[in-house]
Amino acid sequence: MKKRKMLVMMVLVAAMLAVATGCMPQTAETVEVGGQKVVTLYSVAGERPITGTSKSTGTDGEKTIVTYGNGEVTVEDINNYLAKLVNEDGFIVTQEVQNDGTGQSYQIGKQTDDGKALLIDFYFVDGQETVITYQVVG
Would you call 31 exposed, middle or buried from its count of C-beta atoms within 10 A (0-12, 13-18, 19+)? Predict the structure, then answer.
């Protein structure tokens, strides 16, 4: 009986952790942050392995971070995604590409209907992880 109780507790803790980290399916077409919906990388690149997600709310706004792993996101995927967001969804480049010697970072943004800023930060390391941060500030 004690082992069963312990097993049930472990399953509950695992479920709570999964909910707390904001699990997102690899085929999610949109991500929501601060009441704003944004199309995901999936919309242009198809399914890519998501190795982590997190959501947070602080004094500076709401943030959702999606990490793609296994090096399966390519430069072409990122460029196509950026092009879609800029050309079709009204984003503008707010930070040109920066290379830190390991990876590249970019930022795009747009104003929301309620006057806040919706920012998307990209950090891409070829052959490794890609981190996309969606944030509403203001």
Answer: buried
Please provide residue 60's backbone torsions phi and psi, each rounded to the nearest 5 degrees.
-95, 5
pTM check: above 0.85: no
pLDDT for 34-87, tens place per residue?
999 999 999 999 999 999 999 999 988 999 999 999 899 999 999 999 999 999
CATH 3.30.310 describes domain 24-137? yes
Could you report the per-residue pLDDT of 79-94, keeping only the tens digit for each? 999 999 999 999 999 9
Domain ranges of the chain: 24-137
DSSP percent split of the chain into helix, strand, coil, nearest 5? 30, 40, 30
> How many Cβ atoms are within 10 Å of 89's Cβ, its own excluded?
13
**Nearest CA among 112, 115, 108, 103 for reference residue 133:** 108
CA 73 to chain centre: 13
Per-residue CA distances from 13 to 7, 51, 94, 103, 109 (Å) = 10, 19, 40, 35, 37
Supply angle C-alpha 108, 126, 128, rounded to 5: 105
